[in-house]
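Hey all, sorry for the wall of text incoming. These are the three entities for the joint prediction.
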Amino acid sequence: MGRQPCCEKVGLKKGPWSAEEDQKLVSFLLSHGQCCWRLVPKLAGLLRCGKSCRLRWTNYLRPDLKRGLLSEEEEKLVIDLHAQLGNRWSKIAARLPGRTDNEIKNHWNTHIKKKLKKMGIDPITHQPLSLAQHGPLKQQQQARLDEPTKPLAASQEGSVSGTGANDKEEVEEAAPTSAPPMGVACSAASSASAVSPSCSSSASASAAPPGAVVDWPDLFEMDGIMDIDWASFLSGDGGGSRIGVDLFDHYSDVGFDQQVWM
DNA sequence: AACCTGTACAACCGCCTAGGA
DNA sequence: ATCCTAGGCGGTTGTACAGGT
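and here's what came out:
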């Protein structure tokens, strides 16, 4: 029995998103909230599949996203969490408010891996390279590479993080032991779910109920926002659908401050 | 100036899982 | 208990851009 495609792909657009598409999606989501992703493209007038819309939103368009390179503190935290959790980027991202799993994964692959190697540390085992190359950990790692994905994750957990806990327990219990005092980070751990329903892609989608919009003002307090011109975007200067005034009106009663965006 | 190569990151793909029917 | 669907996750690919030759 073949797996059904996530959506009817015929006639759907792929590849990079245009500014107009972004605007349509953001406009729709801000005014209607997140509901059934499959319906979003239809209702928003987009020729994209729902999955693509969700990804675009969680990885790029969410207003609470930080843009730009990870700070040193964030990097350290990522390394520390990776040592505990392995490649479970969504769980790592959950500890870094405003960062997405995709962003962290990319940053890991392009920056941190190299840094660690330069420092003589194996980015997979987090052991010194000389040990990692010849020691039992490396062998275990190699063995893991030959295993299917899930067992790999499980065994990685066992050997790298040393915990046999299930996911939920890990997230709650695996507080970084050697992480820097987390200004960023730990506000991360402690407030991620409380302050921002979407501090990570995983947190966001599941934490915010469909149509839940009351937490938006909290999100807007995040210091970094995507680098598009939100001011003109929200005020409708950019052409296309207009969400500016209505949006501010809509959220005025929950403290939505237009000045933040202008 | 043109071409080549490496890098960064956005986006896609396929699988897994939770939850509802 | 089983099936189906939507959403989530991690790995991989594609592409734009920067730097070097």
